[in-house]
């Protein structure tokens, strides 16, 4: 009986509360009386929220007539109304006349955009979420002036990001990524674009010097989403589609392949290699369609929950990304979670903690080129009459006489996968004892474990050329524990109403610890999955391990001042001490200074304010560093090897690297000048900047000269040389609205000029990419270095006239149809001295175009990106056009290659021997114009507001990388850097080949908010 009374009491209380509430309705419009859908409403001091529907209508319950409702929408000034005795409101929102009130994150602080004195570009998370990418940095392409992004293709591949060109030759060129105040290194593969609130790109040293020794390549600050006061809100985003992969070349069929090879053999004086090509008609092995998928599924999904009260806000997100490879196996899968809690204990104390667990697994074969290169006559499997019945599942495949390993078999055997687990914890405590004084401590711990397992089964496809007689198993286990602790004190004060000053001082401590263990074994009893363990190996077991540690301690400070919103000054100072250097050079200082003049706020500009909404001049100077070399380079290391002594193979030890106790920081000094402008309430806005940065004490890994007595492969790190980069960044934006139709356009334009100023000795030459690039004083680093291909010999007269002054032929083995190599220095000889500059991998300029349109509930986004003026080495030319190898060729090569006077001046005659070295000499034959224009993204969306019980429902159809214009004949004009393990990250730039292409992608998207 007593329960009846309890339920009656609860019902009575609910009724009382309901009757106590006031229902408020109305519409929200702009000054042109156009309804604004999606406006956020919140009852101040409560968790009650609402949003306007497509027609701008809203309904919200408030507790009493004293309640205040705040209206907010991007691009408009917030408005607060007092309810009072009214229950219906017509609210007019005014467009924000000053985008300068936006908050921009800078190092260890955040400021109004109007107070920024350095070169900083900001991109909102909403702009990044229009693309489905595994690495969010790829979404920056074309959106930020001064930033060059080159996609690498392939599941899990990290794009190459250059901020205002390169500032180093031998070290990493990647920027430093700082996530929620914590430096996270040079990769953000662990982040989902759905987690990001904003990204700030610190482009000049006056902005990035606060990060000192790791800021020479620029800094990208990332702020993740946090909870906001209001009711619990759910958001679900997903996009799913297909990455399309078509064969970049039209390869010869079996009959065409035989015809091409026969012609190559005949031109060299041999009989047909494959007599009677017509016998192969209709017998082509379609390797591509047998092993490469036309479409690889890609899925991106995110579920977010956020909300909170004045005392506690929270945001939780679960993110999933999966990109399958173009093969039947492998790909990249990532699961991340972010749990952010912020607490406000009082007006003085606040705290927060964020947990970020994540997992990813990846592995992809790298042999997709073999599906084009293998001959089209060989079948996939051995004929039945060649099988004995004793073969294992990996030995039933056919062997190609082209010496290209059977690609179907290679994918079948592939077992090389990595699983990675990480947990990052980031917490802060903040105390404000008096107004303007903020004391903050922040710490982060990152724990990671990475396991790579590789198994190579035993097989015999061909006893001489394609086999693995004994299986092998390997496993690497790498763990890391990294921590960061930052402490800052900031005091801000306004004096006499016009003097605004802020001072921050602090220190940071960072430590990075890692260890690895590896094991190797052979002779696992069989190839079954259950036996692929190290303990199952029966022969040649081996193991090893290592550990490493580095630390960084820093003292930081920033002083900023502005007078009356007109004259601004910011100065920063950082002192870094690194464990990577010895006592004499352990510490280095990184200062910066920048000024800004808001010309529009001067009295003499008053009459111009009807047109101008912003006019500001900026100038900055600073020094940043680069300590991105291995740990303990001041120590000498002993390498191990083997050397035959008679009939015995003995163990040997040798000095593999030598200590340099005088090694010190690579330093970049930077100056920049900028002009920001805005017209007609920022309908038209932009910025123009000039920059120049000089790198000194560049870090190089050099080999010891043979006369030193050390082995030629012994190396030493040393400081040598200097280089300079300069250029222009331009951003122009326009946005407007006409009734229900709104539109906008952003154009970014970037130039970079790079020059080596000095090396360790005058006339020194640094080669890269197998002696195919050269770095010398007075030129850009890593330019292509080879012979000049001066067309083809079209007739015997041309061939006979290519001689020295005595009539001796410069190319004695050449025939009509071969490449004519230019005697560059005119000494009557064709030798190494005739190699010269034949191209440059560096673009003259990069352009981005970003368009957006909206009409009622429809929205359209289009992004374009262009690289102009760079060259690319198309390494595939030898594979596709060289008759000296037995690999497959492009279809119709027998007619494309020179076969008579005037038939071609670029593709040499087919030859089995290639005695003229048409393809073995590195020449301009391989160098092509790498300029391109690409449509990066095209997305059409339609939104429903307050329908189906949801605040918002949006569906979208998008295409990424749909269209590319280029004269480059290789796989993909988006070509990045060289092999970092060979020191060729910069010196090997611009070499295209069978690089995994950036693929066209079609996606359907769904966004649900409630």
Low-confidence stretches: 1-19
Mean pLDDT over the residues: 88
Portion of residues within helices:
under 10%
Envelope shape:
globular
Number of helices: 10
Strand proportion: over 45%
Distance between the termini: 40 Å
Give the helix/strand class: mainly beta
Q: If you compute it from the alpha carbons, what radius of gyration comes out, rounded to the nearest whole angstrom?
A: 33 Å
Q: Strand count, sense and closure of the main sheet?
A: 22 strands, antiparallel, barrel
By DSSP, the count of extended strands is 54
Question: What would you say about this model in short?
Answer:
The chain is mostly beta strands. 7% of the residues lie in helices and 48% in strands.
What's the topology here?
Layout: H1 2-20, E1 22-29, E2 40-43, E3 49-51, E4 57-62, E5 68-72, E6 79-82, E7 88-92, E8 103-106, E9 109-112, E10 120-124, H2 125-128, E11 147-150, E12 160-163, E13 176-179, E14 182-183, E15 196-202, H3 205-208, E16 219-224, E17 230-244, H4 254-267, H5 287-291, E18 295-308, E19 312-324, E20 331-344, E21 349-363, H6 370-373, H7 407-413, E22 416-431, E23 437-456, E24 459-462, E25 466-468, E26 472-495, E27 499-522, E28 539-563, E29 567-578, E30 587-598, E31 612-626, E32 637-645, E33 648-658, E34 666-679, E35 684-696, E36 699-703, E37 715-719, E38 722-738, E39 741-751, E40 753-758, E41 766-768, E42 773-775, E43 783-786, E44 789-792, H8 796-801, E45 819-821, E46 836-839, E47 845-855, E48 858-868, E49 871-874, H9 876-881, H10 893-896, E50 927-929, E51 932-947, E52 950-966, E53 991-992, E54 1001-1009
Parallel strand pairs: 1-7, 13-16, 33-37, 49-53
Antiparallel strand pairs: 1-4, 2-3, 2-5, 5-6, 8-9, 10-15, 11-12, 13-14, 15-16, 17-18, 17-54, 18-19, 19-20, 20-21, 21-22, 22-23, 23-26, 24-25, 26-27, 27-28, 28-29, 29-30, 30-31, 31-34, 32-33, 34-35, 35-38, 36-37, 38-39, 38-40, 39-47, 41-42, 42-43, 43-46, 44-45, 47-48, 48-51, 49-50, 51-52, 52-54
């Amino acid at each position: 009986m007593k329960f009846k009374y309890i339920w009656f009491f609860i019902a009575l209380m609910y009724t009382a509360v309901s009757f106590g509430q006031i229902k408020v309705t109305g519409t929200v419009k702009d000054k042109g009386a156009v309804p604004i859908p999606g406006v956020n409403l919140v009852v101040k001091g409560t968790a009650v929220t609402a949003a306007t529907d497509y027609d701008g209508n809203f309904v919200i319950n408030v507790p009493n007539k004293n309640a205040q409702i705040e209206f907010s929408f991007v691009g408009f000034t917030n408005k607060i109304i007092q309810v009072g005795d009214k229950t219906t409101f017509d609210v007019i929102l005014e467009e924000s006349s000053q985008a300068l009130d936006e908050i921009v994150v800078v190092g260890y602080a955040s400021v109004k955009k109007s107070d920024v004195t350095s070169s900083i570009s900001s991109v909102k998370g909403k702009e990044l979420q229009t693309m489905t990418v595994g690495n969010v940095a790829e979404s920056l392409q074309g959106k930020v002036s001064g930033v060059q992004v080159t996609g690498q293709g392939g599941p899990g591949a990290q794009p190459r990001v250059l901020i205002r060109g390169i500032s180093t030759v031998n070290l990493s060129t990647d920027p430093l990524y700082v996530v929620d105040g914590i430096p996270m290194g040079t990769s953000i593969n662990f982040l989902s674009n759905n987690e990001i609130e904003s990204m700030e790109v610190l482009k000049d040293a006056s902005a990035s010097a606060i990060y000192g020794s790791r800021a020479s390549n620029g800094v990208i600050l990332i702020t993740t989403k946090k909870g906001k006061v209001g009711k619990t809100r759910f958001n679900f985003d997903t996009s799913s589609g297909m990455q399309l992969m078509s064969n970049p070349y039209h390869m010869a069929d079996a009959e065409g392949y035989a015809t091409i090879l026969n012609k190559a053999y005949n031109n060299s004086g041999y009989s047909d290699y494959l007599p009677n090509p017509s016998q192969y008609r209709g017998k082509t092995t379609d390797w591509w369609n047998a092993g490469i998928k036309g479409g690889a599924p890609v899925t991106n999904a995110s579920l977010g929950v956020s909300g909170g009260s004045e005392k506690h806000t929270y945001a939780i997100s679960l993110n999933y990304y999966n990109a399958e490879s173009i093969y039947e196996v492998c790909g990249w899968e990532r699961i991340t979670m972010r749990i952010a809690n912020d607490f406000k204990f009082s007006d003085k104390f606040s705290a927060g903690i964020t947990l970020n667990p994540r997992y990813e697994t990846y592995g992809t074969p790298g042999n997709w080129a073999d599906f084009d290169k293998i001959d089209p006559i060989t079948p996939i499997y051995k004929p039945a009459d060649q099988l004995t019945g004793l073969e294992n599942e990996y030995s039933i495949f056919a062997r190609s006489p082209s010496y290209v390993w059977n690609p179907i078999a290679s994918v079948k055997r592939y077992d090389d996968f990595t699983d990675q687990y990480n947990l990052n914890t980031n917490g802060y405590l903040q105390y404000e004892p008096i107004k303007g004084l903020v004391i903050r401590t922040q710490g982060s711990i990152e724990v990671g474990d990475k396991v790579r397992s590789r198994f190579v089964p035993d097989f015999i496809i061909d006893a001489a050329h394609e086999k693995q007689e004994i299986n092998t198993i390997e496993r690497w286990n790498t763990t890391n524990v990294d921590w960061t602790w930052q402490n800052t004190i900031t005091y801000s004060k306004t004096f006499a109403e016009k003097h605004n000053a802020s001072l921050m001082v602090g220190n940071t401590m960072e430590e990075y610890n890692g260890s690895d263990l590896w094991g190797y074994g052979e002779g696992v009893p069989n190839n079954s999955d259950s036996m692929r363990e190290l303990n199952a190996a029966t022969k040649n077991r081996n193991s090893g391990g290592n550990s490493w540690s580095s630390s960084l301690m820093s003292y930081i400070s920033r002083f900023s001042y502005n007078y009356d919103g007109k004259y601004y000054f910011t100065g920063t100072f950082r002192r870094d001490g690194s464990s990577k250097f010895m006592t004499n050079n352990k510490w280095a200082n990184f200062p910066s200074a920048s000024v800004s003049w808001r010309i529009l706020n001067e009295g003499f500009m008053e009459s111009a304010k009807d047109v101008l909404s912003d006019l500001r001049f900026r100038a900055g100077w600073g020094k940043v560093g680069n300590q991105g070399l291995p740990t303990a380079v001041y120590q000498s290391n002993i390498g191990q090897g083997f050397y035959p002594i008679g009939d015995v193979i003995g163990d040997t030890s040798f000095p593999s690297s030598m200590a340099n106790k005088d090694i010190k920081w690579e330093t970049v000094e930077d100056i920049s000048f900028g002009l920001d402008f805005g017209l007609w309430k920022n309908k038209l806005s932009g910025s123009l900047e000039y920059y120049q940065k000089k790198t000194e004490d560049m870090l190089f890994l050099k080999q010891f000269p043979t006369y030193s007595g050390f082995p030629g492969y012994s190396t030493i790190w040393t400081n040598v040389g200097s280089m300079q980069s300069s250029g222009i960044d331009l951003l122009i934006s326009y946005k407007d609205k006409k009734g229900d139709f709104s539109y906008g356009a952003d154009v970014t334009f970037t130039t970079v000029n790079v020059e080596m100023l000095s090396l360790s000795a005058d006339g020194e030459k640094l080669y890269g990419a197998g002696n195919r690039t050269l770095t010398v004083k007075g030129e850009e680093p890593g330019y292509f270095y080879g012979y000049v291909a001066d067309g083809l010999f079209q007739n015997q007269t041309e061939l006979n006239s290519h001689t020295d002054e005595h009539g001796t032929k410069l190319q004695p083995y050449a025939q009509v149809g071969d490449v004519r190599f230019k005697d560059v220095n005119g000494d009557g000889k064709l030798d190494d001295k005739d190699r010269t500059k034949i191209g440059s991998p560096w673009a003259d300029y990069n352009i981005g175009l970003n368009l957006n349109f909206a009409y009622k509930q429809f929205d359209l986004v289009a992004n374009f990106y262009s690289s102009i003026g760079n060259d690319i080495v198309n390494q595939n030319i030898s594979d596709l056009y060289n008759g000296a190898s037995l690999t497959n060729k492009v279809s119709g090569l027998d007619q494309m290659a020179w076969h008579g006077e005037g038939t071609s001046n670029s593709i040499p005659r087919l030859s089995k021997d290639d005695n003229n070295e048409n393809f073995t000499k590195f020449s301009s034959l391989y160098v092509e114009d790498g300029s391109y224009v690409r449509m990066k993204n095209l997305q059409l969306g339609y939104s429903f507001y307050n329908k189906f019980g949801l605040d918002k429902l949006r569906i979208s159809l998008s295409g990424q990388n749909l269209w590319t214009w280029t004269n480059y004949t290789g796989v993909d004009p988006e070509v990045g850097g060289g092999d970092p393990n060979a020191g060729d990250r910069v010196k090997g730039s611009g070499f295209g080949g069978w690089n995994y292409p950036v693929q066209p992608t079609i996606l359907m998207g769904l966004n649900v908010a409630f």
